[in-house]
Write a structure and sequence with these properties.
233 residues, six-stranded mixed β-sheet, four-stranded antiparallel β-sheet, globular
Length: 233
């Protein structure tokens, strides 16, 4: 995919809740390979809904949404599943499988794509060591703290090196040291070509890193990027 080709394209997209309230209004923007965005806005502004829209967990009301060049307006379930395999997601509810160990949860995306057991276990251990959970391989999710669950969810989201990574408040339950390690991990993925979108409401965190910024306010998404430079340079 060339630099000029967007991997996500929104053209005049509207998103309404079931009660008819518009959460996103007339959103038009494109996201590219190797782009890194903070997604900002007040609590309740629609950050999580925006991420779920990009993951096809919510359906837009009008406009055109293309993901990897495919119009998802009337996409089949099979095609939707294929696209989702290329997207890593970290939501605030974690969505860990309680009957699987930490190691098995993290290795699951590799199992889905047919990776052999030894290799997926090795990669899962490596990423868990990186996020500070090297002593938790055989633990079950219900024995973990909120911050530990967050890190397991992040490790699972990044292990298959997705083309898009969507992270909703990924540093909200961890200390500053772990938060910096996670940001380093996300930045490394971005450098390898992943489009990274990190939702946060911490202004000081956004100001610490000079990444691009999308800001949601009153349903509108504004580009508040510090500059238009390519981060990969």
């Amino acid at each position: 995919m060339t630099k000029e080709e967007s991997i996500v394209s929104l053209d005049d997209v509207m998103l309404h809740y079931e009660n008819g309230v518009a959460v996103l209004k007339n959103v038009s923007l494109s996201l590219y390979k190797k782009s890194f965005y903070f997604l900002t806005g007040a609590s309740g502004a629609g950050k999580t809904s925006f991420l779920r829209l990009l993951y096809m967990g919510m359906k837009h009301s009008s406009g055109k949404l293309k993901i990897f060049g495919q119009d998802v307006s009337n996409i089949s379930l099979k095609d939707q599943c294929e696209l989702r395999r290329r997207i890593g997601v970290v939501f605030q509810d974690f969505n860990l499988l309680d009957h699987l160990t930490v190691l098995e949860n993290v290795a699951l995306p590799l199992k889905v794509v047919g990776e052999i057991e030894a290799r997926r276990e090795h990669q899962a251990k490596e990423i868990l060591d990186w996020v500070g959970l090297g002593n938790c391989f055989n633990m079950l999710p219900n024995t973990l703290s909120g911050g530990q669950k967050q890190r397991v969810a992040i490790a699972r989201a990044v292990i298959a090196r997705p083309d898009i990574l969507l992270a909703d408040e990924p540093t909200g339950n961890v200390d500053e040291n772990i938060a910096n390690k996670l940001m380093s991990l996300f930045y490394g993925m971005h450098r390898m070509g992943t489009c990274v979108i990190v939702a946060t409401h911490y202004r000081q965190f956004v100001d610490k890193f000079h990444y691009n910024e999308l800001h949601i306010e009153n349903g509108y998404v504004a580009d508040r990027s510090h500059s238009k430079r390519d981060l990969e340079k």
